[in-house]
Amino acid sequence: MKVRIYGPGCMKCDTLFKLVTKAAGQSGLTCDIEKVTDLGEIIAAGVITTPGLEIDGKIILQGKVPPMDQLTAMLDEHAA
Q: Which residues form the catalytic set?
């Protein structure tokens, strides 16, 4: 599974990256997790408010950092 976190490097973006990494580890998922900070790439992906979360090419979250259980559920849903 390919996961991308979009954001300029703010605290929320960093927090989302850490939580996604932790959630994937707790679920035993093998994920390629990438942090995208380039403004051009963020805009090209269609992210309007950061942080943005993309799983396997689909933007599934923008503008917030959800709780760990919600992130785990999102990752598990896309892993199936």
A: 10, 13
pLDDT at 56 over 90: yes
Kindly list the structural domains of the chain, giving each domain's residue range(s) and its CATH number in brackets, ordered by start: 2-65 (3.40.30.10)
What does the longest C-alpha to C-alpha distance in the chain come to?
32
CA–chain centroid gap for 41, Å, is: 14
Structure tokens at 9: 């490097």
Q: For the whole prediction, is pTM greater than 0.85?
A: yes
Strand 32-36 relative to strand 52-55, pairing: unpaired
Q: Residue 29: which residues within 8 A CB-CB, separation 6 or more? A: 1, 75, 76, 79
